[in-house]
Automatic annotation (TrEMBL):
It comes from Streptomyces litchfieldiae. Homotrimer. Keywords: Antioxidant, Disulfide bond, Oxidoreductase, Peroxidase, Redox-active center. This is Alkyl hydroperoxide reductase AhpD. It catalyses: N(6)-[(R)-dihydrolipoyl]-L-lysyl-[lipoyl-carrier protein] + a hydroperoxide = N(6)-[(R)-lipoyl]-L-lysyl-[lipoyl-carrier protein] + an alcohol + H2O. Coiled coil: none annotated. Its EC number is 1.11.1.28. The lineage of its organism: Bacteria, Bacillati, Actinomycetota, Actinomycetes, Kitasatosporales. Residues 95-175 form the Carboxymuconolactone decarboxylase-like domain.
C-alpha cells in the first residue's frame, strides 16, 4: 500500500509526521472523495515526486476517474492563481487589484465533481502555496455551501501534513541521511 510506504519512509525524528499522516487520512468530517481529492491536490502542490507517486497511486484507487482529474485540475489552476493573487496582494500599489486578471479559469464552471469538493481542493492547495486571498475566497464559498469549520480545518490539516511529509522526504533524499 502506497500510504504505508510513505509512513515507513519517514525518519525517526519525524515520528509525529508518520502518526499525523495516518490520522489525516482517516477523516471525521470529509467524505472519501473530499479527502482523497484533497490528498492528491496537495501531493501535486507539494512538488515532491515521491509524495506525488505514492499518494497519487493511493488516490487513484479511491477516486473515480472524474474526481482524480478534477483534483489534478484544482492543483493546476490554483498553482497559477496562488502565484497571481498572492503577488497582486503583496504589491504595495493597490491599483493592481483593480485590473482584470485575464486568466482563464473555465474549469470552475464545470469541474466534473460537486462544486464544494473542487472548492475544498482549491482551498487546500492555497494553504500549501500560502495565498491568503485565495484561502479567504474558497473558505467563504465552502461555508456558503454548508461545509462547517471542522471540514475546512480538516482539509487544511491534510495540506499541512502532506507538505511536511514532502519536505522531510525530499530533504532526506537531498542530504543523503
Amino acid at each position: 500500500m502506497a500510504l504505508d510506504a510513505l509512513r515507513a519512509a519517514m525518519p525517526a525524528y519525524a515520528k509525529d509526521l508518520r502518526l499525523n499522516l495516518g490520522s489525516v487520512t482517516d477523516p471525521a468530517h470529509l467524505s472519501e472523495q473530499q479527502l482523497w481529492g484533497t490528498v492528491l491536490a496537495c501531493a501535486i502542490a507539494s512538488r515532491s515526486a515521491v509524495v506525488q507517486r505514492e499518494l497519487g497511486e493511493e488516490a487513484r484507487k479511491r477516486l473515480t476517474p472524474e474526481a482524480y482529474t478534477a483534483a489534478k485540475a484544482a492543483a493546476a489552476l490554483m498553482t497559477m492563481n496562488n502565484v497571481f493573487y498572492r503577488t497582486r496582494h503583496l504589491l504595495s500599489d493597490p491599483g493592481y487589484g483593480t485590473l482584470r486578471a485575464g486568466l482563464r479559469m473555465n474549469v470552475l464552471g464545470d469541474p466534473g465533481v460537486p462544486k464544494p469538493d473542487f472548492e475544498l481542493w482549491a482551498l487546500a492547495v492555497s494553504a500549501v502555496n500560502g495565498c491568503g486571498q485565495c484561502l479567504d475566497a474558497h473558505e467563504h464559498e465552502l461555508r456558503r455551501a454548508g461545509l462547517d469549520r471542522e471540514a475546512v480545518q480538516e482539509a487544511i490539516r491534510v495540506a499541512a501534513v502532506i507538505q511536511a511529509v514532502a519536505t522531510t522526504l525530499d530533504a532526506e533524499a537531498a542530504l543523503g541521511d
